Amino acid sequence: MTRPASAAHSDAPPDPRRWLGLAGIGSGVFMFTLDGSIVNVALPTLTQTFGASLATVQWIPLAYLLVITTLVLGAARLGDMHGRKRAYLFGLGLFTVASALCGLAPGVGWLIAFRVLQGFGAVFVSALGGAIIAQTFPPSERGRALGVISSCVTLGVALGPTVGAFIIDWVGWRWMFLVNIPVGIAAMIIVSRVIPDFAPAPARLPFDWLGTVLIALALGGFSLALTFGQRHGFGTMLPLALFALAALALAGFFLAETQVDAPVLDLKLFANHPFSAGLAMSVLAFIALASTAFTLPFFLQLGLTLPIATVGLLMAISPIIGAITSPIGGALSDRFGPRWVSLVGLLMMALGGALLSRLDQGTTILRFAMTIAPVGFGMALFSAANNSAVMNAVSRERLGIASGMLSLARTLGQSTAIPIAAALFGLFALGHAGVVDHTALLRLPPSSLLRGAQHAFYLTWIAALLGAGVALWMLLRDRTSRS
Questions:
Q1: Which of 234, 259, 284 is where one domain is finished?
Q2: Are residues 143 and 252 in the same domain?
Q3: What is the DSSP string of 272-314?
Q4: 238 and 328: one domain?
Q5: What is d(CA 405, CA 390) in angstroms, rounded to the nearest whole number?
Q6: Strand runs labelled E in 381-445
Q7: What sign does the dihedral 398-399-404-407 (CA atoms) show?
Q8: Domain match, 53 and 110 both
């Protein structure tokens, strides 16, 4: 059963089933983010299973993230035009079917292709989940509800390697994808029966296909340039050509968006300083989180030579802390405002990244737990507060594009972090061992792999510290404007 959109207006009592609807939306958001990082810990296994190179199997996580990054704004706009619930259910259904295909893939090429299809479904879940929750809950509860969604995002990104490690150890890598099927079906049933049928935007203006294609070329070219630069060197022709393509497409996108009646991205939104600053901080925070999630399996499994099951247990520390504290961050944001909460969260992430970069072969489990805890706690505080601030900075009819932009910030941060962290890891590990051949990376001695991981962790604290600088700037700006 669903209720009409008019019942969602601020003068009507909130739907008592809204928390069950939050569970359905949160399940979809959790699966989409989980599948963005779950395969990281499986890369050595998949390399051996398919007899492929690390450069090839790296496309298994990257193909998924690239599709989401390049199409998320178009998906948000389609949801605004045709109904967010309908678009969300379509994406969740496609994601579930593609998950089954990934679990049955006969070869690495098929797996990469099915990951692309999975990304096409996930992009609607990514773009519209937050907007549906913001539209369903009243402003007095929105921070807490978005805090739960932030918990799902944080859990999905950080818990992926943990879940993947246990699944590989117990039942094999294919079940990393097959477990999505029952969860996806259950989430679809809940969302279809509980979430209201909010009416789409009344003005049915043409969809901005030109803007969608140009932003896809810009973001896709940038991400591919980072990937091929890692493989061939950033001074070679292919990465430089891709960077040039991305720059030209981005310039064309900005020009095109000023010429159409219904742009996929209303550039006037960026004149809203809380909105644009929140997006910048989100990109930097997810660069920090994703670089940590990508590097930790190599540090623990190859550097410290721990069993994969132990790696899974240790990597569960940060997401468990994040799941517990993210709703607290949302409640603190509702009560005290998001600025200080965001700043504290980012500073804690920077502290955790700095401590991670100093770990060595003598690292104990207790020391590791105390080192990784600030990353999970800080990300949970930041994400809940920042998401609430961004969604509250726009009008109700812009909630869809705001949710899409938050999702873009997340996936852009992840797809940027993975190739950069991988490049730092490989460069310093090979340099420490005095080896040039990048195909020998996984065969290096643990001491060299540890050195590479230490330098990859630099990206964590540098990105978080830059985000904290943006948060501090917004605090000072608010204080100046009040005076």
A1: 259
A2: no
A3: -HHHHHHHHHHHHHHHHHHHHHHHHHIIIIIIS---HHHHHHH
A4: no
A5: 9
A6: none
A7: positive
A8: yes
Question: Helix axis angle, 139-170 relative to 399-433, nearest 10°?
Answer: 40
Which candidate, 359, 8, 293, places its Cα nearest to that of 158?
293
* Same domain flag for 157 and 253: no
Whether this model's pTM surpasses 0.90: no
Residue 233 lies in a domain: yes
Q: Judge if 297 and 275 occupy the same domain.
A: yes
Collapsing DSSP to helix, strand or coil, 15 comes out as coil
Q: Which of 225, 259, 293 is the last residue of a domain?
A: 259
Of 93, 85, 94, 96, nearest to 128 (Cα)?
85
State the amino acid at position 32 in one-letter form. Answer: F
Query: What are the DSSP calls for 361-379, one per residue?
Result: TT--HHHHHHHHHHHHHHH
- Distance, in Å, from the CA atom of 262 to the CA atom of 398, rounded to the nearest integer, reads 12
Same domain? For 195 and 337 the reply is yes
Residues 322 and 435 in one domain: yes
Q: Is residue 2 part of a domain?
A: no
Residues 6+ apart with CB under 8 A from 142: 133, 134, 334, 388, 391, 392
For 73, the domain range is 13-208+260-482
State the maximum Cα–Cα separation within the chain, in Å, rounded to a whole number. Answer: 69
HSE-up (13 A, CA, CB side) for residue 196: 23
340-355 confidence digits (pLDDT tens)? 888 999 999 999 999 9
The number of distinct structural domains making up the chain is 2
Whether residue 245 sits in one domain with residue 121: no
For residue 342, which of 214, 236, 473 has the smallest C-alpha distance? Answer: 473
Low-confidence ranges of the chain (pLDDT < 70): 1-16, 53-55, 140, 142, 154, 157-158, 199-205, 227, 230-231, 264, 330, 396-397, 399-400, 436-442, 482-483
Within a domain: 122 = yes
CA neighbor of 101 nearest in space, from 180, 214, 213: 180
CA of 319: how far to CAs of 143, 254, 344, 459, in Å?
Answer: 20, 37, 18, 19
Q: Are 61 and 418 in contact (CB under 8 A)?
A: yes
CATH number of the domain residue 141 falls in: 1.20.1250.20
4 strand-pairing partners: 197
Nearest Cα neighbor of 125 from 205, 38, 36, 37 is 36
Q: Which two tokens stand for residue 347?
A: 């500073």
- Please write the tens of the pLDDT for every residue from 91-105: 999 999 999 999 999
**Assigned domain for 317 exists:** yes
> Using CA atoms, how far apart are residues 266 and 398, in angstroms rounded to an integer?
10
Asked whether the CA dihedral 113, 126, 464, 42 is positive or negative, the reply is negative
* Beta carbons within 8 Å of 59's beta carbon, 6+ residues apart: 112
